[in-house]
Design goal:
9 helices; COX15/CtaA_fam; transmembrane; 2 domains; oxidoreductase activity; mainly alpha; flat; 346 residues
Length: 346
């Protein structure tokens, strides 16, 4: 149990680092520093930011030291996270015969972080292609969520209730809705469509503006195109923004409905606390989204909205954990556990 708790603590520390990487990645993207270093993994051929780049260096993009440092700091944090995840995977494999030790998830996280590194490289070398930028965001969020899940499941603390099936299904659906909404948010940011609708709740003075779904959600435009600043026309950007708003309404109804139902019907204080946390973060995230529009996308609010998405995702992950009791390894001669109480059915 002590060994599992220490392993869970290491996973939790990795999750904290992953959260920092996600927030830094959002800051880099939202401050238009994604191409601050035109190569990968270094910056203008160096492991740090050079003081100057001469005209004969072979790099067409001029050095902007501020943007370059933002990009490199993000890479340093991501590299540190990769090493911690590699350690988690190695420890899990070495302890694979111990009861209760997760193996598939830590080893899978190693593969995921390697793929994340490739996405980070393609983000730069493919000049901020929206599909890659959005996939890189989702990969970071997935890494963060899976690390938190690993820490919770390896923590050795059993859930206090045996949750009924409908709540679990609803919580899992809420998790899926949040993931889709994060993807829509990433697509909105990657296509520079956050201010395509500068008013709220209407879009350029209309409830349903001119739309172009074909152009808005064309995933592949080919290589060699510089996507900095976006390439979509006004109608396509409004479409992307509008769909993200519709997704916000769906998320509010799905996740908010689950929160209200659990607060009204759950008997376990732990379930109620988890639901309350989800509800509070949901309201904060909606408020930050509206603030992005009415305030003209200030950097602090935009970065907070990115961090809020990660926080909301994690709160729903925690809720799913609470609704799924942890299977505890017990000795063969241990007495049978007492029956656990459940949630009141709807």
């Amino acid at each position: 149990m002590i060994a599992r708790s220490r392993y869970a603590l290491l996973a939790l520390l990795a999750a904290v680092l992953a959260f920092a990487v996600v927030v830094l990645g959002g800051y880099v993207r939202l401050s238009n520093a994604g191409l601050g270093c035109p190569d990968w993994p270094g910056c203008y051929g160096q492991l740090g930011v050079p003081e100057a780049v001469g005209p004969g260096s072979g790099y067409e993009r001029p050095l902007e030291a501020g943007k370059a440092w933002k990009e490199m700091i993000h890479r340093y944090f991501a590299g540190a996270l990769g090493m911690v995840i590699a350690a988690l995977g190695l420890l899990a494999w070495r302890r694979r015969h111990e009861p209760g030790q997760a193996v598939a998830l830590p080893v899978g996280l190693v593969g995921l972080v390697v793929f994340q590194a490739l996405l980070g490289m393609w983000t730069v070398t493919w000049l901020l292609k929206p599909l890659v930028v959005t996939a890189h965001l989702l990969g970071g969020m997935a890494t963060l969520a899976l690390l938190v899940w690993l820490a919770l499941r390896q923590g050795g603390v059993p859930a206090p209730v045996e949750a009924s099936g409908p709540w679990r299904k609803w919580a899992l659906a809420a998790l899926g809705v949040v993931v889709v909404q994060i993807a829509l948010g990433g697509w909105t940011s990657a296509n520079y469509a956050a201010l395509a609708c500068p008013d709220f709740p209407t879009c350029q003075g209309r409830w349903w503006p001119e739309t172009d779904f074909g152009a808005a959600f064309t995933l592949w435009h080919g290589l060699g195109i510089d996507y900095e600043g976006g390439i979509l026309d006004n109608a396509a950007r409004m479409t992307v923004h509008l769909v993200h708003r519709i997704g916000a309404v769906v998320t509010l109804l799905t996740v908010g409905g689950l929160v209200v139902a659990l607060l009204r019907r759950a008997r376990s204080p732990r379930v109620r606390r988890a639901a309350l946390g989800v509800g509070l973060l949901l309201l904060v995230q909606v408020g930050l989204g509206v603030g992005n529009v009415v305030l003209g996308l200030p950097l602090t609010v935009a970065v907070a909205h990115n961090a809020g998405a990660a926080g909301l995702l994690l709160s729903v992950v925690v809720l799913n954990h609470v609704l799924r009791p942890v299977a505890q390894p017990v000795p063969d001669n241990a007495p049978a556990p007492a029956a656990q109480t459940g949630l009141e059915s709807a």
